[in-house]
Structure formats: C-alpha cells, structure tokens
Design goal:
With 420 residues, this protein is mainly alpha-helical. The chain has one domain. It has 17 helices and two strands. Strands 1-2 form a two-stranded antiparallel ribbon. A hairpin with a 2-residue loop joins strand 1 and strand 2.
C-alpha cells in the first residue's frame, strides 16, 4: 500500500481548515513573535500582544469552521480526548467558583480555555508536508536570532531567561527534525541537518539541565519506537513507567541532598556543567508537597499559585505539582488521563515517521513539565508551541485512521523514513 500521498488525499483535505502559504506564514510569525514575551527586553509586550492576537484569531477561525462548513466534524479518535479536556475545565471552574475570585484565578481559567481552543484550531488545520516546511523555514530565522540573543546575554546583559529560552528552542527543534525527515534531496537534508546541529548547540549553551534530560528521554523513545509499538501492552507500560519515574523523582529528589553519595554527585555535576544537581527546586517541592497533603483530593482552588504557599513570587517548576496543588488528585488524574489518551492516539499512526518524531517529542514535553510549567499555564509562548507539536501528530494519526491505516496493517513497513 503506497502512503506517500496520503496527506494530499482530497477526501481528507476537505475536512481540514485550508492553510495556504500566506496563512502559514502569519501563523509562524505570530508564534515566533510570541517568543519575545519570554525576554526581558522592551519587546516583551509585543510578544504578549502576538500571543493574544493568535489566540483570538484561532478562536475566530475555529468558530467559522464549525458553523460555516457543512463537512466540519471533529475526528472520531479525539472525541473522548476532548471530553476529558472539558472535564478538566469543569473541575477548574468548580474550584474557581468555590473560592474567592482573584485576577490569577481568572487568568488561569482564561489560559485553559485559550489553550483548548488553540489546540482544536491546530488539530483541524491542513498540515501537509509543504505547510510544515514553510513553518520550519520561519523557525530557522528564530534559531539565528536566538544565537544573537545568547551572545547578547553572555555579555552580561540578561535579556532572556536561559531556561525558558532553551525550552523554546527545544520545542522548535521539532519542526527542524520534521523538515529533515521529509527532505528527499541531499542538499536539503544537509541544510536541515546543519540547522538541527546549530539549534542543539544553542540549547546546550543555555545550560538548562532539564532540557538535556528531555532530549535524552526523546532520543530513547525515538530509537526504541519499534519495540515500544510492538504490542499494546508494551506501548501502555512505557507511558506508565515514565510517570512512575517522574513521580518517584518528584517525591525523592527533595531528600537526596542529605545523602553523601548524591552530595558527591552534585560536586561532580558542578565541575562538568558549572551548575549544581540540586537547583533549589528540592526546597520548593518539599513545601508544596506538605501543603498538598492538607488538601489532597480537591486542592486549594484554581486561583492558588505556589506564591500563595511559599510567600514570595515563584513558580512550582513542576506542572504536575502545580495542578495537584490547584485541583487536587481529581484534577491531576484527569490531566494524566488526557495525556494517556494523546499517547493512545499516537499509536494509531505509529508506523508513520512523523508520528514517531511527535511521540519522541511528546515524551520530551512530559519530562520537561516535571521541571517547568507551560503546557496549560504560565509560559504560554512555550505552551502554544507544545500544543502545535501535539496537534500536528494527532492530525497525522487522524489522516491515517480515516484511510483505515493502522498499526494492525501487515503490508506497511518503514524504509528509509518513508512508509511504503
């Protein structure tokens, strides 16, 4: 069965929101300008305006698509996933209503609604190879600009938060890898390969250790993919095992600085990287874990931030802890179930090379969220890129699923990165 033209099948394209060259350029520019919101420059408000405009525009086109297009319908394979998203919103809304209204509470609810709307918009776009290639070229421009920012930053002028900036580059790396995977000419492959190397260099220059762990987790997933998708049980156990490790790390990490072996390990890490293994997160997490123990089931409310617990402005540096703090075990389990559903959807198109790349980055995103907060709140400039990656992957799975192509097909094989 030939699959090279599956993404150009008119029976599938007519179900998606058409995205021509000017449209994808506008989307790319909005996404990339939004990155400025993570800098400490005079251009920070410009980045915020770009994010707001993109969120408003995505809602408008989503509304137009659903209301005005007779063939519009949500893909069947994501219906249950969307239902879980709605349930998460309901839980947050109930906690919002049951606690005193604050600006932070309103902001978090708005961010959650905006993220859901933006994700639906991305999911329903016509993500053909050419479309993503155009977006990837926009990313190249940002990689070049990022090098200038890093040079400027290392002159002693702190224009960017290196952890945040490195995270942005890591997630933009997806588009460069995607472009490399669909390049058929040697010169194009060389160009994208060199760009990937430059982007990786910029990421490592930020010294963000959480990104190193995310990259390792992603590479492990990518190169183990054939084994992971071997059967449903292994595929599911991989996801469960990942969160068991994340959970154990979050619980045990705060206490490791009292063990001699890890004190020596910390010294070795400092000699190699110039940064400590213990990043002060351990002190923060202990306080948050103790606070969570007092309200474990329903949490403190969507308007509560770690700042309210710690007494000073600080991030939880862990999305799962922040959700646990706000909406308790109920909200956290719903969120984890939503991530599980995304993972299950990716299995439907797992023989597609681009879905494989998405799966690797998805695992990297989940690992990264054990150290930062961006997928649903806080750093939306990163979160929107993360949901774009996930949306593109699910979009590919949707196309394969609608053609009756799944991992059960015995006449499919991966040869040289192309499904044939």
């Amino acid at each position: 069965m030939e699959l090279k033209n599956i993404h150009n099948d008119p029976r599938l394209i007519r179900r998606f929101i058409p995205l021509n060259t000017p449209g994808v350029l506008v989307l790319g520019v909005f996404l990339l300008i939004g990155v400025l919101n993570s800098t400490n420059t005079l251009l920070k408000p410009v980045g915020l305006i770009s994010i707001i405009l993109l969120l408003i525009t995505s809602k408008f086109f989503l509304f137009w698509y659903v209301i005005c297009r007779s063939q519009a319908r949500v893909p069947r394979i994501v219906v249950s996933f969307l239902f879980t998203l709605i349930m998460i919103f309901v839980v947050y809304s109930i906690k919002f209503i049951s606690t005193p209204v604050t600006f932070h509470g309103i902001k978090i609810i708005y961010q959650l609604v905006s993220v859901v709307g933006f994700f639906l918009f991305v999911l329903l776009l016509d993500w053909g190879d050419k479309t993503i290639m155009i977006l990837s070229r926009c990313v190249v421009v940002l990689v070049v600009v990022s090098l200038l920012f890093l040079v400027y930053n290392y002159t002693g002028r702190r224009s960017v938060n290196l952890n945040v900036f490195g995270a942005i580059l890591y997630h933009l790396l997806f588009f460069l890898v995607f472009a490399f995977s669909v390049s058929h000419k040697k010169l194009q492959s060389l160009f994208w390969g060199l760009t990937i190397v430059v982007c990786l260099f910029a990421i490592f220059a930020t010294n963000a250790r959480s990104l190193w762990i995310a990259i390792i987790a992603g590479l492990l997933t990518f190169y183990s993919w054939s084994f992971i998708i071997k059967n449903k049980l292994i595929f599911r156990l991989y996801f469960v095992f990942l969160f068991l490790i994340i959970g154990l790390f979050v619980v045990l990490y705060p206490y490791l600085n009292t063990i001699p072996v890890f004190i020596d390990f910390n010294h070795q890490i400092y000699e190699i990287t110039g940064k400590n293994f213990f990043s002060q997160r351990e002190r923060l997490w202990i306080v948050l874990i103790e606070a969570i123990k007092e309200q474990p089931i329903t949490g403190y409310g969507s308007n509560v931030l770690p700042t309210d617990i710690i007494g000073k402005e600080v991030s939880a540096h862990n999305l799962y802890l922040q959700i646990f703090l706000q909406v308790g075990l109920v909200g956290l389990l719903l969120f984890l179930f939503m991530l599980w559903q995304i993972w299950e959807i990716l299995r439907l198109g797992s023989l597609n090379l681009q879905v494989r790349i998405t799966g690797a980055f998805f695992i990297g995103i989940l690992v990264h969220q054990a150290f930062e907060v961006s997928l649903t709140q806080n750093h939306l400039s990163i979160g929107m890129i993360q949901w774009t990656i996930i949306g593109i992957g699910i979009n590919r799975c949707t196309r394969c699923h609608d053609r009756g192509i799944s991992i059960a097909s015995k006449d499919l094989s991966l040869k040289g990165g192309v499904l044939t």
